[in-house]
């Protein structure tokens, strides 16, 4: 990754899953820039495309169309080995199912140590610090497969941060945690993951991040900064009305567009 490029840039990214019977358009025309140092909460209803976007940002999927840069590197131009190297050196990932991030027969401490393979020297101190921060120091020698779901989730965050990634990507990293552990994990991500994108349904996580991005039906519909929510004007001027206004302007209804000095007003056209 080059130091001046944003951590992430998506330009018209589309993701289509092809199964034998159907094609599912999971993401369409995603334009997104995440600057270095930002922490972004990725919000949206189930099936909106959040996990798909996270997998694209992790280099685990390649977009069906559009362009995606991780740092200065355009993913579409990287061969499989170059992409693997970039992922190992620069990106930390917490997948939705915590067990998938871990080697089950290795101890908690070994899992964190293995994850430092891309850095030149493993640091016992960093392993100890991370285990301490996620409250797993007393369980350092227990095999990861014998930890509870919540413990595995906390360990997965420690593993993802082990080699000081420039970009941390986490899919629901607090879904199995009580409020106290969730707050500690969010604090850790903000402190040690200098740039992070976190999929979450937890409003507390959303509030802790510097920015929220809401996906609905495969498109970025809204963004939030400093507690204020904005709709995002998409390509060709498309706007997703927030669901709380669907009663006033139901999907499928017609509206008049009235220009005003600094924007437009939409008024329902009575049938
Ligand atoms: N491997 C796949 N093959 C076919 N369709 C898929 C695949 N993975 C996801 N989808 C579909 O793509 C769409 C987006 O799924 P995705 O998992 O990205 O949503 P999500 O917002 O993360 O949902 P959730 O909050 O429930 O995890 C959904 O319609 C889903 O059914």
Automatic annotation (TrEMBL):
Domain called ABC transporter: residue spans: 8-242
Entry keyword annotation includes Nucleotide-binding: yes
A GO MF term: ATP binding
Entries under PROSITE patterns matching the protein: ABC_TRANSPORTER_1, ABC_TRANSPORTER_2
Annotated keywords: ATP-binding, Nucleotide-binding
Tree of life domain: Bacteria
Protein known as: ABC transporter ATP-binding protein
């Amino acid at each position: 990754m080059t130091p001046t490029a944003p951590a992430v840039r998506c330009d018209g990214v589309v993701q289509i899953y092809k199964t034998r019977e159907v094609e599912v358009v999971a993401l369409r025309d995603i334009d997104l820039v995440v600057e270095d140092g930002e922490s972004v909460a990725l919000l949206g209803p189930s099936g909106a495309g959040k996990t798909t976007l996270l997998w694209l940002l992790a280099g685990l999927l390649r977009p069906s169309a559009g362009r995606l840069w991780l740092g200065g590197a355009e993913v579409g131009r990287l061969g499989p080995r170059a992409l693997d190297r970039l992922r190992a050196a620069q990106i930390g990932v917490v997948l939705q199912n915590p067990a998938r991030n871990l080697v089950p027969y290795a101890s908690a401490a070994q899992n964190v140590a293995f994850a430092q393979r891309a850095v030149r020297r493993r640091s016992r101190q960093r392993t100890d610090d991370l285990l301490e921060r996620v409250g797993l120091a007393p369980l350092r020698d227990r095999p990861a497969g014998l930890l509870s779901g919540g413990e595995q989730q906390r360990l997965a965050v420690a593993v993802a941060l082990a080699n000081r990634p420039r970009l941390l990507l986490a899919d629901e990293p607090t879904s199995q945690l009580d409020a106290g552990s969730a707050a500690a994990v969010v604090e850790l991500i903000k402190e040690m993951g200098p740039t992070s994108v976190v999929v979450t349904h937890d409003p507390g996580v959303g509030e802790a991040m510097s920015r929220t991005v809401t996906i609905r039906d495969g498109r970025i519909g809204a963004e939030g900064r400093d507690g204020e929510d904005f709709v995002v004007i998409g390509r060709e001027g498309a706007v997703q009305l927030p669901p709380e206004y669907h009663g006033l302007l139901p999907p499928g209804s017609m509206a008049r567009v009235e220009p005003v000095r600094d924007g437009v007003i939409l008024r329902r056209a009575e049938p």
